[in-house]
Amino acid sequence: MSTAGEFEVLLQDEGDLKAGSVVHRDITEQFRSDLESGDMEKIIIVASQTEGLRSVFPKINGKPEEIEVVLDSGSQIVSMSSSVASSLNLHWDPTRVIHMQSANGQLQPTKGLIRNVPFEFGGLTIYLQCHVIEKPPYQVLLGRPFDTLTESTIKNFPDGEQEVTITCPNTGNKMTVSTFPRGKLKRSDNVKPTL
């Protein structure tokens, strides 16, 4: 085998590959082979197989209820379940419908659009357009429109924790918001502050 950087040329047949085949080297193998002697014993840090989505708990429409709001920058919309919209006394325009494609490829229409919904993050209020969905697997989902409106910046930590800093487009004020693992309670009443 002859190697040149990240590629290797087979000098003899190996399995189904014929001599002379150009093969892309495994990135980990390449990294390890380029190490100086003695460095091989060092630990290589790798990514976990999955990381769960994170949630925030803003006040929505001025209501005191804590609603779990999932952060998902892979979504093109901000959406809310119809039951949450009703509980927050929000009303939607049923003529503003889009068709959502699910993971299995099916298309389903939304129920409508709620315009200018106030979301309050610790005194900073932003207004979002929420598509209403019947029985989604979340209460509220903040997608790319939230990220672009607030110019959000995300700081991730090795332990999975995450902070999101947002900017109010109307005032320019900034707020750093703690996030929580999706499906977990925001806080426990048993936790006492430490001084």
Question: Characteristics of this structure?
Answer:
disordered C terminus; 10% helix; Cathepsin D, subunit A, domain 1; Peptidase A2 domain-containing protein; three-stranded antiparallel β-sheet; Peptidase_aspartic_dom_sf; mainly beta
Brief digest:
By secondary structure, the protein is mainly β.
Account of the 3D structure:
The chain is mainly beta and 195 residues long. The protein has an 8-stranded mixed β-sheet with strand order 5-10-11-7-12-6-4-16. The longest helix has 7 residues. The chain is elongated. It starts with a strand and ends in a 14-residue tail after the last strand. The relative contact order is 0.16. The C terminus is likely disordered.
Shape: elongated
Low-confidence stretches: 188-195
- Under the CATH scheme, the architecture of the largest domain is Beta Barrel
CATH class of the largest domain: Mainly Beta
Write the layout of secondary structure elements.
Blueprint: E1 2-4, E2 7-9, E3 22-24, H1 27-33, E4 54-56, E5 59-60, E6 69-71, E7 78-81, H2 82-87, E8 99-101, E9 107-109, E10 112-121, E11 124-133, E12 140-142, H3 144-150, E13 153-156, E14 162-167, E15 174-178, E16 180-181
Parallel strand pairs: 6-12, 7-11
Antiparallel strand pairs: 1-2, 2-3, 4-6, 4-16, 5-10, 7-12, 8-9, 10-11, 13-14, 14-15
